[in-house]
Amino acid sequence: MLTFLSQIGDPLSVLNVFRYITFRTAGATMTALLFVFLFGPAIIAALKVRQGDGQPIREDGPQSHLVTKKGTPTMGGLMILSGVVVATLLWADPRNPYVWIVLGVTVCFGLIGLYDDYLKVSKPARKGFSGRARLGIEAVVALVACIILILVGPYPLATSLTFPFFKDLVFNLGWFFAPLAAFVIVGAGNAVNLTDGLDGLAIVPVMIATASFAAIAYLAGNDFFANYLQIHPIPGTGELAVLCGALIGAGLGFLWFNAPPAAIFMGDTGSLGLGGMLGAIAVATKHEIVLAIIGGLFVLEAVSVIIQVTSFRLTGKRVFRMAPIHHHFEQIGWTEPQIVIRFWIIAVLLALIGLTSLKIR
Fold it and tell me: Would 334 disulfide with which of 1, 229, 274, 338, CB 3.0-4.6 Å?
């Protein structure tokens, strides 16, 4: 919205700073941060009143959680997503289709998570709606978004799968790329959702991955930098850096309240929305495989659940003491701060490895 200010005045006007993606990314970061700081306490207070006992704690999870986390409200993702939407509408270029596609996926996934959270805190059974139904709705949203991304993207790159570290390794999958890309978005949303189990565990790796994709989106959207680094240029995706900045700012604000002991949990509202956003940005910038590297921590959490479930169904035995894997480390004696901080370190290392793919070609 504020981009129109760059059209006011002469070419030397100070308002020309609103043309620059870097300036608007910084503005979106600060706006989202201030929004969460200002409205966060009121949102937490309102959720406490409406949720009573707070988020249901897994009875089959770590027993300590039944004491330390009982009564903590959920749906904190409302704080994050509200900050992202407000900051994006203010600072992003409304003429850019990638902004609306990614924002649409983020909001839709957030609403799916919100409904799931609502069922958990309002129904006596304390369970969300059917997992198959939830995945089905996510798949439809993601597939529609991917079809639109193909239509607005450059042909034939829009339907191609690119590989990191190899500048010429590109497979054009045609329209079969759409379901593959949708799988990436749905997988990212649910992987982040599985990671959200300890105070601060999910939000910091999400911000680390988002900062990485802010750089990727900016570079891919700039012909000069894209050609210099020999990555595939995607005109228009640079604007997604503004959304990434908004998410980082909102995430920092949320972390203020989510730091141990958490005053609020992000819930499925936040984890699904943020994961879906990362997946959509990865598809838009043609860095789907790089997402698996930068977001390797989320992949690890998801794979640990798959291994646990598969092993138990086939052999009746469990590979881990508890899944997702962060609960396994709790069971073997790691404290919550140890797990969280060590997982943050892993997230930083994976992000650095993923970013090297921009130069090593």
Answer: 338
